[in-house]
């Protein structure tokens, strides 16, 4: 244990996701050794994020304005909406350069054990958005885990009554360069059931 401000900094850094005690200590001592100008830039960047970043009124993605650049982009197809759990998932889909529609960020996934139910997510906003727009397809892009599966199943039940709406789910299966012998049964089973004609 260190004294005063150093230990306070280590404790605060250790609360960040993915930062353990050793990493927090390394970052803290890096900041202590850094030039004052570097620390000031980091401090200003953190302040700008807290003061200047908002969530898009339409999709819930992070934005510098009330409406994010994707929702403002007239070249995007407004009839197709990809539903994701978190803003970081938008970036993951965008990196593929395959999706040309719009997004809806739920703000998490259903997790009753942690107290996260439908009311804690942006599901109501999604339903209102679909009811008031000409959306023809909703792509569910949840994480392939228990919470993601529960969220996708819940959304399918909520969306099935919208006339003319197609609800699809991202295909899941084997990664490129992977070996069949190392694939778990669930992944291999999904790859088989999601196969397509070549």
Structural features, described:
Belongs to the RecR family. May play a role in DNA repair. It seems to be involved in an RecBC-independent recombinational process of DNA repair. It may act with RecF and RecO. It holds the Pfam family RecR_HhH. The structure is a single chain. The protein has 198 residues and is of the alpha/beta class. Helices cover 44% and strands 13% of the residues. It is built from eight helices and six strands, in the order H-H-H-E-E-H-E-H-E-H-E-H-E-H. It has helices spanning 4-14, 21-33, 36-52, 69-72, 87-96, 123-131, 146-159, 185-193, and strands spanning 54-55, 62-63, 77-84, 101-105, 137-141, 166-169. The strands form two sheets. Strands 4-3-5-6 form a four-stranded parallel beta sheet. A two-stranded antiparallel ribbon has the order 1-2. Helix 5 (87-96) links the parallel strand 3 and strand 4. Helix 1 packs across helix 2 (21-33). The longest helix has 17 residues, at 36-52.
Short description:
This protein is of the alpha/beta class. Helix content is 44%, strand content 13%.
Helix/strand structural class? alpha/beta
Strand content: 5-15%
Shape: globular
Largest sheet: 4 strands, parallel
Pfam family, one: RecR_ZnF
Domain Toprim: 79-175
Protein name: Recombination protein RecR
Function: May play a role in DNA repair. It seems to be involved in an RecBC-independent recombinational process of DNA repair. It may act with RecF and RecO.
